[in-house]
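Entry for the shared binder. Reason: the reviewer on the internal report wants the predicted structure included alongside the sequence.
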Amino acid sequence: MPKIVSLINLKGGVAKTTTTVQIAECLSSEFGKKVLVIDLDPQTNATIALIDETDWEQLDNQNQTLFHLFNDKLEKTNYFDLQNSVQKGVSNLAIPDLHLLASSIKFIDIQDRISEIPAKTGYAINPMEVLKTAIHAELINYDYVLIDCPPNLG
């Protein structure tokens, strides 16, 4: 199983995203580690640092950002597909073993509703388990998972 590191601070502008991206690039390019970056911040800065804005827009339009994973639980839909969502060989360095699960600015629209997920799923899953459940089977493919968290408690 990989080492999972969440970069968390309630204050914005303290270099969570920059640190996440730099550590990910270093672990993968310098140390040969397979790294997954998970961008949970609606500001999408880690996403845009690692993939082209056009590629991000295409992912978002195809329902393959993390917003869609959580929105599927709220709306009882099933658009998000992990295999299509994981972006491989990301960063402007095109590092083969650096992968990304992209965020979306649409997270802002549902961040206050994420607490409704248990009721919407018949109490089958809580919000903290949504991401874990979605990626659990893929974790064996990574040495590190770095999670860029938003600057809030949500």
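Summary line for the report: Residues 79 and 140 are 24 Å apart (CA to CA).
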